[in-house]
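no rush on this but wanted to send it before i forget. what follows is a protein written twice so to speak, once as letters and once as structure tokens for the fold. mainly i need to know what kind of three dimensional shape the backbone takes. thanks a lot i owe you, the record is right below.
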Amino acid sequence: MDHVESKKKHWETIYNTKKLQEVSWYQPVPETSINYINDTQVAKDAEIIDIGGGDSFLSDNLLSLGYSNVSVLDIAESALNRAKLRHAENADAITWIVSDITEFKPKTSYDVWHDRAAFHFLTSEEEIQKYLKVMQSAIKLNGFLILGTFSENGPTKCSGIEIKQYSKEQLKAIIPKSFKFIEGKNVDHPTPSGGLQNFTFCKFQKL
């Protein structure tokens, strides 16, 4: 089993064995992500993709706000299937993409690339560079990158997997120079078990 297949199996198992409210990233209203996307002032028909979105509620919230071209990418098909069931008749309004982000071959360009789930799981330089190459090519000129990762004060593991922590300065340093840093902050995410996870959120624009 290669690395990608191993990752896929791990996440399929997580989504097949844990309920929606049991996963640490459960967040009915992802306020920071929504505010960052709204603040870009992109049109309601802008192309928005949520990387590693799984069955997160960001897509629900974006649809309710009137955004009409939302895509969700995840390595685990079971996660997307759970989200489709929750969306019910609105499921067809979302573009669902099953892919490992390092192997993603976009069929369109995006006005907003959002990720608060995938990037910090990439711990090898090879994976990180693959991600950055895909991301850079997939975002339109003047489009936005919104990246949320575990901070230097956040967890060192998630769902049994080692992660890579980032401060705002570290994210600014690793993102390609063709992207202008707009803003960044640290946010505490309360988990269903009662803990707090500290995230670093940054927004960039491709120039």
